[in-house]
């Protein structure tokens, strides 16, 4: 789930978080069961319609699957070599569509609503010493960290291009790790200021 909430007044925005998460689980289950290209094409149209109905915009929609482009390409090539064209298309489409659906959930769900949902899910574990609030906070921060790291990676790469630096894993990874650690420090200080440092 890599999206950042986009304010809106669509039906998806008004649905409760539990309904959207349940819909995501059901949709991904159906997605796994679909095996034909025709069925997946229909499912792709369904996902596209959901994005149109949500009104989040093309930029936000593209941002959900853009980080997957190289992974999807490698997966497609591997599946094509090992299993053939049909299997490669099906496997790649399943991953892309699942991520797109998960992204749509977070694009249309407020952070506070998602935290409340997670907290209710873990409520029964309070009896065995688990703090539902802290678990929900951890999960929510994990979800929200994905787009942050993706944005940091994009910023590092753009800075390299601006300096005319050719592609280098080392030159890319070191600034990214440093930026991620700085973000983690800032996040830790913010949590500490709110009394969540123990």
UniProtKB/TrEMBL annotation:
Membrane topology: Multi-pass membrane protein
Domain of life: Bacteria
Transmembrane intervals: 15-34, 41-62, 68-85, 92-112
Keyword Metal-binding: no
Family matches, as CDD domains: EcfT
Keywords attached to this entry: Membrane, Transmembrane, Transmembrane helix
One Gene Ontology cellular component: plasma membrane
Name of the molecule in the record: Biotin transport system permease protein
The species this protein was found in: Nonomuraea dietziae
Lineage of producing organism: Bacteria, Bacillati, Actinomycetota, Actinomycetes, Streptosporangiales
